[in-house]
Design brief:
Elements: H1 18-28, H2 34-39, H3 48-62, H4 69-80, H5 83-95, H6 99-109, H7 119-129, H8 136-152, E1 156-157, E2 163-164, H9 171-183, H10 189-192, H11 195-198, H12 204-216, E3 221-225, E4 228-232, H13 234-238
Antiparallel strand pairs: 1-2, 3-4
Helix pairs in contact: 4-5, 4-9, 5-9, 6-7, 6-8, 7-8, 9-12
């Protein structure tokens, strides 16, 4: 990936901002005028300051760079995906650009389906990754923002309790997760072990089943024989 996840986070102030992202993407996905949409205040922010802050956070997390391969892939999959998949695509893309979001994945995913996702658990994880970096107030706010982001992506339901639920990624979402790992120079089994694929919370068997389906739709070149896994996006990228 072109942007190091160690350098960027918006979760000290904002969340995944999926509603705002979806509005920009749906308006601009066919014409590529993402930045124009932001500058023209498509999101209808009431003050210039709020508009500038929102635009800054959205660009930080999603780039909207039509020349970047990662974003080109994001746009491609957004166009072909159903509504339920789009929030997962947003989370996957953001995982590669926001280090606090990426670090929170293990904490969220280890909560059993049907149980409450506790703010305190996310706070503890933040402190373990970054001892004494945040005040208690900021740490709680960041934890709440992170939980909100996972909720927007469909991993948590309920306005009050915040219950862990199961997502159902399609083959195109799995292909996008693999693509992001591939662009991060992962190959073979390392793609399956990448943070993007692991974030989908699927068994290896299910991932491989969906990879086969993605290959049938020419989204990835996938082969698995014995203990050797070959995953390539050369053909896909040449047509992107």
């Amino acid at each position: 990936m072109s942007t190091s996840p160690k350098e960027i986070t918006i979760h000290t102030s904002r969340t995944l901002m999926y509603a705002e992202l979806a509005k920009i993407m749906d308006y601009s996905v066919d014409n590529g005028l993402f930045i124009n949409a932001l500058e023209d205040n498509l999101l209808s922010k009431t003050t210039k300051s709020n508009q500038e802050k929102t635009n800054k956070y959205l660009k930080t997390l999603y780039s909207f760079d039509n020349e970047a391969v990662e974003f080109k892939g994001f746009v491609y999959y957004w166009k072909m995906s159903e509504e339920n998949d789009k929030s997962l695509l947003a989370l996957l893309y953001a995982l590669g650009r926001d280090f606090l979001l990426a670090e929170s994945a293990e904490t969220i995913l280890k909560v059993p389906v049907g149980e409450k996702v506790k703010v305190e658990a996310v706070e503890e994880a933040l402190e373990s990754f970054h001892p004494n970096r945040f005040t208690a107030k900021t740490r709680k706010s960041v934890a709440q923002n992170l939980i909100s982001s996972w909720k927007q992506a469909g991993y948590i339901i309920g306005k009050v309790r915040g219950i862990r639920t199961k997502t159902n990624p399609t083959y195109s979402v799995v292909a996008f997760a693999m693509l992001l790992a591939y662009l991060d120079q992962k190959r073979g089994e390392l793609i399956l072990q990448s943070k993007w694929v692991r974030a989908l919370d699927l068994s290896e068997t299910k991932v491989r089943e969906l990879a086969v389906e993605a290959a049938r739709h020419d989204l990835v070149q996938y082969q698995f024989a014995g203990s050797v896994t070959v995953i390539s996006f050369e053909k896909f990228l040449s047509n992107l």
